[in-house]
Amino acid sequence: MQITEIYKSIQGESTHAGLACVFVRLTGCNLRCSWCDSEYTFTGGQRRTLEEVAAEVNRLSPDGGLVEITGGEPMLQEREVVPLMQRLLDAGYTVLLETSGERPLERVPRQVLKIVDVKCPDSGEPDTFHMENLETLSSPDEVKFVLSDRADYEFAREFVKQHSLDRRVKAVLFSPAFSKDARGARDTSYCLLDPRELADWILADSVPARLGLQIHKFIWDPAMKGV
Ligand code: SF4
User: Fold this and answer.
1) Distance CA 28, CA 44 (A)
2) Can you give the pTM of this predicted structure?
3) Among the atoms of ligand 1, which is closest to the Cα of residue 117?
4) Are strands 93-99 and 113-117 parallel, antiparallel or unpaired?
5) 29, 31, 35, 40 alpha-carbon torsion, rounded to 10°
6) What is the three-state SS of 144-196?
7) What atom of ligand 1 comes closest to residue 32's alpha carbon?
8) How far apart are CA 142 and CA 135, in angstroms?
9) pLDDT per residue over 167-208, tens digit each?
């Protein structure tokens, strides 16, 4: 499979935020979100076999723990990444899959914890969510909306309501988008939507969502890769 990087860091998002995690970042994405902070994954990378990837994960975290399969869009390499996820599960890891929601997910092993995006209008990739993926979601999974403005928030609020998302999954995440030009300041000044405003909206509407911040962008320079 084509791999951009494998590294160990602190998980910055989801209900696993704050925990040590090995990230396996696959190369390539078929979407072009306006605020994407992973454009360096679109091309390049190195060919690595399943055995090489599993060995590197084991070197970084020999005693098990969290592994996140991410990208780019990892499910573009489904033929190789599904056996990788199964291998890591069999080795005792807790496996997270971070995916855009555009690719079918029915062949993802059941024990993998899926963190599935639903792209909002301002991402520039609206209507890309593969609706059949709703049926693959189960109680350990999470659904994430990255929000840039009020219109995104209203889209997300209505999607959650219409599909009773909070009853399908462990967590519905509402996360302010970060400017892809963010660098230096480790604060909310580069959030495209002020988290405080988002908090007010969630509270006013009693939305069953968890406000998520990408905590790695408050720990390290937001422009830093490999963290
Ligand atoms: S799906 Fe993810 S990697 Fe692909 S363009 Fe959007 S944010 Fe970037």
Assistant:
1) 8
2) 0.96
3) 1
4) parallel
5) 20
6) EEEECCHHHHHHHHHHHHHCCHHHHCCEEEEEECECCCCCCCCCHHHECCCHH
7) 5
8) 13
9) 999 999 999 999 887 887 887 888 999 999 999 999 999 999
